[in-house]
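Archive entry: two folds, one per protein. Generate the first.
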Amino acid sequence: MSVYPVIMCGGSGTRLWPASRPWLPKQFIPLTGARSSFQETVTRVAPLAQDGRVLVVAGVAHKALIECQLAELGVEAVVLLEPEPRDSAAAIAAACAWIEATEPEAVAVIVSADHDIPDAEAFRAAVRDTLAGARDGAIVTLGVTPAEPSTAYGYIRPGDGSQAVKPVAAFVEKPDAERARAYVAEGFLWNSGNFVAQAKTLMDELAVHAPGVAEAARAAVAEAEAEGGVRVLGRPFRRAPKISIDYAVMEKTDRAAVLPVSFRWSDVGAWDAVLAASARDGDGNCLGGDVQAVRSSNVLVRAPGDIHVAVVGVSDLAVVVESDAVLVCGLGASQAVKDAAAGAPPGGSGPRFRTVEAARDWYDLWLRTAALPLWGTVGADPGNGGFREALTARGEPHEPRRRARSLARQAFVFATAAAEGFDGPWLQLAIGGYDFLVRHGRRPDGLFVSAMTTEGEVRDDTGHLYEHAFGLLATSALHRAQPDEPRWLEEGQLLRRALEMLRHDTGGFREVGDQPFQANAHMHLFEAALAWEAAGGGAPWAALADEVAELALGRFIDPESGVLREFFDAGWAAMEGEAGLVEPGHQFEWAWLLQRWGAMRGDPRGPATARRLYDVGCRGVDPAREVAVNALWDDLSVRDGVARLWPQTERLKAALILGEDDDAVSAARGLARYLQTPARGVWRDKMRPDGGFVEEPAPSTSFYHLLMAILELRGRPG
């Protein structure tokens, strides 16, 4: 009969704020040593799985953290990801359903990822002592002999019996101090929350006491989708009642048993517990980072390496420094840190805007003094007038190629800066970049190629609707900046005529590639048509904008739900399944465009649809990080928890134009985190679900998104 250790990675660790955050909870942080609590737990339980497998159950947002930390250990595990948190009963049920389907008689060893147990062998020996009872149908909890009366833990009253494993007489909640002393005197044990049972036993008990949990877990495991080396539990998991395993089973079952153990154990649930579990100096201090303690004792200080922290003449204190928050806490009040965490602003490092006006001023300064100068110098090629494809986080050129969309977007950015009256050589840069695009990238039929070398040699001559739309947008901005220059009107007319070769016979336009009927390319065409109309281009542009608007209102957007569909068949019927994804960024982008169009036409369908689009987009906002994620499933649950930069700009624009100031301030804070880079004026592109960023160059294509969001902010009177 095999043993399957199951590591539960739930919980946000609010009492360990500010080190522990929703995107980087305490179990993934080194708290008492060089490795995280999760990694220590893996190494502690892995030897138990001689014939079984290690299972990890966690939220989908922590996928990257788990994969990385397992790889550092060189340990393989079965990882089950919850599409949303449903408390411990559902998480344990999912693990047991997987084990039951794999090996029905196997024993599950359920442990928490964030506990500190220094004596790993004593823990494993205790687990082995429970196995006989577990195989006989008991659910055996490890009850820890208390080191002291504590109000931080629940307690177990063991029943009578001569065997090491005893029946449970009662589970009791966390007591007050007086009752805790009485419990210890009466021989009660701390409830460690670790227990051992056959998977089928737990599933049988769940079926009796919480059938909705058992049914949802089995269905979720059956419908789990492999994603790399992990399995994302199926949608039925979301139907599981939200209840803890204690309330669902342990307080109701007649199979509960307890093995008293005496090894050192802590759930490391607060800063006083972290200090108690850590190595200390002769004064009882635990100091991490560039820290100095003078005439101080029994203090815990943690700080990043680039910040010097000194404490003088203090004792019984925790000082925790992060890049965006500092905690100073008396150790006796450690349990109350969760109240400070609840009152702290969400998000991570970056400016803490409280008003739209504060955000406007910060972004305006960043644009004028950092972004435009950097991309107008390092981001431009003085040899041939083209624009760089990307810059590194340190502001160095990176361009394996030059895409037509990048050149056109940058020409739009600099032409718009000139039209808006920003001081600088922006018009000359815009013209030079557009000339490079036309000189090297215009096909004989008037469309643009897709990609070139840095010297202009064509690498991909495909003429995409998407690229063409940005050529139209660039010429609209050039016309705004030089209204008396006839070239730009002529360029716009030439590009509009070339567009006709991409027209679809049942309406709209065809894109090149596997998905020729799509909303995204039309969205940018819509944007370009509105821009040309606003620049004085005349009736043909208004007609093009109206054509795309009617296609969006009639085909792209579900009138009831407000969901924007991305891909369609030749009759413009929405495709489902993998092609039926929902992108919050596009929800916001279309909302902004249709609100503008409705205001220009006096058509109430514009603002009404914009509001529905916006509301759906908000379903994809992660409030902990204050960012919009990349994609949702069609039931609006998270499909891809990575958050690229551009959806944040579109959320900000939509919130502003719809008068949602609180959302706009939140979006501005979230977006600002992407701009915290070694070289001011560049940006991060992808935020992982854990709140960290992918290390990669800043794509120039994001500047267009940033500029438009900042211009929407600048529209506020100051």
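Generate the second and append.
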Amino acid sequence: MRNFQLPGRSTVHALNAMVATSHPQAALAAVEVLKEGGTAADAAVAACALLGVIEPQSTGIGGDCFALIQPGGEGKITAYNGSGRAPMAANPEWYLERGIRAVPLTSAHAVSIPGAVDAWQTILREHGKFGLDRLLQPAIKAAEEGYVVAPRVAFDWKNQFEKLKKGTNAERYLLPDGKPAVAGDVIRQPELGKTLRAIAAKGRDAFYTGEIAADMVETLRSIGGLHTLEDFAAHTSEVTSPIGTTYKGLDVWQCPPNGPGITMLVMLNILSRFDLTKFAPLSIERFHLEAEAARIAYMIREEHIADPAHMKVDVAKILAKEFAEEYISNIRMDRLLELPNVAPPMNPSTIYVTVVDKDRNVCSFINSIAHAFGSAIVSNKTGILLQNRAGGFRIQPGHPNCIAPGKRPLHTIIPSLVTKNGRALMPFGVMGGQYQPVGQTHVLTNMLDYGCDVQEAIDLPRGLHYEGVYQLEDGVPAEVVEGLKKLGHKTTSVVSPLGGGQAIWIDWEKGTLTGGSDPRKDGCALGY
């Protein structure tokens, strides 16, 4: 069902391999790895490492990583959880005794141990042909020789100018000449290049032990952090199985908690009760139902989801179709459902990479430093910009997501994979902090309910019901906005685009790949 036209970019098509990500230079680096015989995992790590230099507001080695990988596009899917933990000294009582009742997002307390580098090495050990020594070279070159700032990166840089001015070492490393970089500027980060060289030579141990770890610990402790060298040395990634649900006859997979992908699966379960095809894709009814599904799913997440190493998370119960029936059965088309207001503690920024190689190995890969420019804390000597992912904790004893020693926060980043009869159809993701479960649901229903191709599905205007307000992009028609208000939605127009997304559709019968990449970012899909 399509009653709209989009003037956006074309889909990208290839026979052999494809990558889609948020920056053309990263997409090109990934394609070069693929042409040299690298796997989808190799290409994803190379692209991500480079993005950590050239898209510094979104990602980097100071952040976390999640991935879904399916070798050959058939059979077993493996989920990788590269999220970091709170320091072992991070007892909630410590904070409360000092009058800290929420984690300040630009403090050392917001910095959980970065998990990305260990996750990259873990993924490559199981699914790569190349090592970090080869795959970090594009990132090293960009850091040392310089890169040209892209328009969307410059937009975010300008918006975060005040934050960077007040950060720890951020002005020295990230505000050349004391002002934000603009599109077309050339930026060099030799200290970060040196750090990446050390990781390329010695692997993850160069990051989690030795001089680099010592510098991160010294930086954090000098501004009140509780981190120790032991916290860094003890970090490990989790290798596990994905969780999933079905929608329109297809299986949809996510990483399990402490990842929040279960939120998207709950949304699909709710929307499967309704026939969206009865409503236009840009209609009051469609946006209303999506908002109601999101409000219920986010409420469930807030009440039931946290690090399963610290509390029991009954995934099967939550994904049962009848779960939260008392709310779902009360959804009405003429008014807003009465629900408790949920205010998640953070709404961060991210990059996403999807890759399918010539052997149809499939990689859905996401990496983030949480909020734009993370904590705005840059390690003294290494150039590492540290995430503020621990800002996602509550300091509220008894809450599922209360901070605790060695605990992982409830995350926001979610790679996704759609399969049919065990075979990969589409690795995809939508960036944008708290928007991600809604964004993935929006893109997938655009395709399965409204017949969009991967690019149209990404392009279509979006909305996010967040903290009691329906944030709507300018492309949402005025009559839809007014109709939502009449149903009881408080609406606002968003200044920045809602997230960004990438997807690759695999046509097994034709032997082709079709890619799309979000115009809300600088990136593209590339294949050969």
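Annotation attached to the second fold: The CA atoms of residues 89 and 405 lie 6 Å apart. The mean pLDDT is 95.
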